Amino acid sequence: MLALICGAAAFNGGTRAPLAARSRVVMQSAMDEPWNSGIISKTVFTAEQLAASMGGAKAPTKMSATATASGGQDFLEATPYWDTSNIPLNTYKNKAPFTGKVVSCKRMVGPQATGETCHIIINHEGKMPYWEGQSYGVIPPGTNPKNGKPNSVRLYSIASSRYGDDMTGKTGSLCVRRAVYVDPETGKEDDSKKGVCSNFLCDAKPGQELTMTGPSGKVMLMPEQDPKTDLIMVATGTGIAPYRGFIRRLFVEKTPAGAAYKGQAWLFLGVANSDSLLYDDEWQASLKTHPSNFRLDYALSREQNNKAGGKMYIQDKVEEYADEIFAKLEKGAHMYFCGLKGMMPGITEMLERVAKSKGLAWEEFLEGLKKKGQWHVEVY
């Protein structure tokens, strides 16, 4: 399991969808995610407390040793900053893991959300650096009842920039949905089938030790060499995680990548309803500070209808802008997908249908995107 996926809502023409609460994250239930039957999320944490990310203490107001004299975030950069030849990779492995500590675990969704999602900040002491788009592995305590062996590692996309939410370069964040199984006949939760690692993480308290591996992955890295490159980011649920790192790097922190960026980063997020939105306050802030470079569209399956009158799923929202998206791809844009693998058939079927309507051979077009490194998929 890596990150998880998100359902969607719409942000059109500058009109903001009504939200029951700000700074919230969501996971879908089987009702809204037919590909995810039986599993729903159960945890909720508010994001307002991120300023108190260090065990309840206020976040530092000065960068001190974490920033240069110019006030920029560049002490964890490559030379040049876009060079990926020496990214941190598999620093810690299963047989020699790292022990991190939980700084905070906060519920992020509102009362009407279909499940529970947590934002978890982990102290890695600067010993487990990572880049945006990579994943951490977490090995939950205990043994697998099926074979009696220690629990295996679970992968989670990292939901912060390399500098961490506190910008010290010593923390990393995860966006985790509590996975529970509901018996379709009785309607009751079956604890024997709940997600071992997600429940362990969502129940974690400050100071809790975590056995960790990684960082891993190169598929979801940003293409920073050409600062004019457009990014199209599609997420369902906690699949939002890597994009939070992207957006913080480009529009929140004073990084060389952010200073150089001239393209457009377009985020599509799918969740069940307004209470299920993830990191909405952060996206709204970036829209205000970078209106020409950041774009946002939500697909809310329980609150919106697609053009056929059915529920608005992520592929339906992307299809509304198919002409723009294909035009961007033809000009070199990179397209990202992150979430449960069940999201991909609907999206690829829609893209293939649109490609045919444009007289394009979809398989050939897709193969060209892959060869040029423009197609990024991390599903599980």
Automatic annotation (TrEMBL):
Top-rank EC class of the record's enzyme: oxidoreductase
Domain FAD-binding FR-type: 95-222
CDD domains with a match to the protein in the record: CYPOR_like_FNR
One Pfam assignment: NAD_binding_1
Superkingdom of origin organism: Eukaryota
EC number: 1.18.1.2
Any GO molecular function: ferredoxin-NADP+ reductase activity
Catalytic reactions on record: 2 reduced [2Fe-2S]-[ferredoxin] + NADP(+) + H(+) = 2 oxidized [2Fe-2S]-[ferredoxin] + NADPH
Coiled-coil regions, chain positions: none
InterPro entries: FAD-bd_FR_type, Flavoprot_Pyr_Nucl_cyt_Rdtase, FNR, FNR_nucleotide-bd, FNR_plant_Cyanobacteria, OxRdtase_FAD/NAD-bd, Riboflavin_synthase-like_b-brl
Alphabetical UniProt keywords: FAD, Flavoprotein, NADP, Oxidoreductase
Positions that bind NADP(+): S157, R177, T238, S301, R302, K311, G339, L340, E378
Cofactor: FAD
Record Gene3D superfamilies: Nucleotide-binding domain of ferredoxin-NADP reductase (FNR) module, Translation factors
Family, similarity comment: Belongs to the ferredoxin--NADP reductase type 1 family.
Protein name per the record: ferredoxin--NADP(+) reductase
